[in-house]
Predict the structure.
Amino acid sequence: MQQIIEEAKALQERIVEDRRWLHQHPELGFELPETVAYVRGRLEDMGYEVTEPCEGGLLTQIGDPAAGPCVLLRADMDALPVVEETGLAFASTNGNMHACGHDTHTAMLLGAAQILKNHESELKGCVKLLFQPDEEGCAPVDTTGGDEVLAAGVLEDPKVDAVASLHIMTPDFASGAVVTRPGTIFSSIDDIDIQIQGRGAHGSTPNMGIDPINIACHIYQGVQNYIARELDPTQVCVATFGKIEAGRAANVIPDTAHMLGTLRTQSAEVRSRFKKRVTAMCEDIAHAFGGTATVQFLRGVPNTYNDPALTEELVGYATELFGQDMVQEMEKPFPGTDDLAVLSQACPTTYFVLGAPVEGTTDCGMHHPGVQFDEGVFWRGTALLANSALEYLNARAS
């Protein structure tokens, strides 16, 4: 394991170089032509054969599937539509920004790819390297990158036995700390789209119409009352409506109203029950006032779930690699979402978090235009990914 640390430290400058190039060229969704060309070129320079499982995605593998199990290491490559305000010398200038650290994930996995190449003859099985598009869900389609790579068969041929990945994070954890937990680690997300049909009327004669704004108000309160009075208070369930719109004039009752919100849960059961109960409630509330409501849950991503047995095993390897003080268990899942969830529902998965706050910028969290990450920890992410795969395969060599 000490050798892996030494190799990762020796790659630190190259990891930073890769990260800075990627940071200066952020792209969105599935449309990642510059990113894909750069990452493909780096992998091919190492001697990898690279395929594109979906638009904006890259997949390669190393080792012999017949010699043992298969591990998949994943990094996301897409950015956010955020105008950067870091003032860094390598800041983006194209109106997009790697404000969630996907540039660092890609660079660290490229580093792991080099370490695995160094140990190719020792591999007791196969390692797949997946560089995924559209984790942020910025593409105007009903699926995310996780859905697309799963549908493309990245877990098959050869069949993947375990998935490992990491997400850089600030400001929640100490720089260089490796953090995870068994079970749910990131929340689910669903967009809630409610279309309300009423009947327009003059503002002076509301009795002649069916007010969709009134229906929307009752639906809004009904959803919050459902969470407060029907849901187990120990369960996490957050429903936020960030958009409610209707009408164009002060003295006109409109025909329709539209509500757009988001649901986040940390339990598949809570998520499923919310959808059924709130759909029925919205329809019934609208009917009670003479209108109709159509409820759709759009582009959902389930909980990201860490397989307990796999996570215990990989945490053990991480502890041997970095020491007990640098490997921690988080108390509760993150309220945010990551579409590694899609793979985690189909294959045993462990998702690590790597702390990387920069002193003096702790007020800038993830997705903030001023967020920065401590580049000094990048070798740790590379070592963690490469070592997790190598030790997993070695443990099953017999």
In short: The chain is about 35% helix and 25% strand. The chain has two domains: 2-186+303-395, 189-301. The chain has a mean pLDDT of 96.
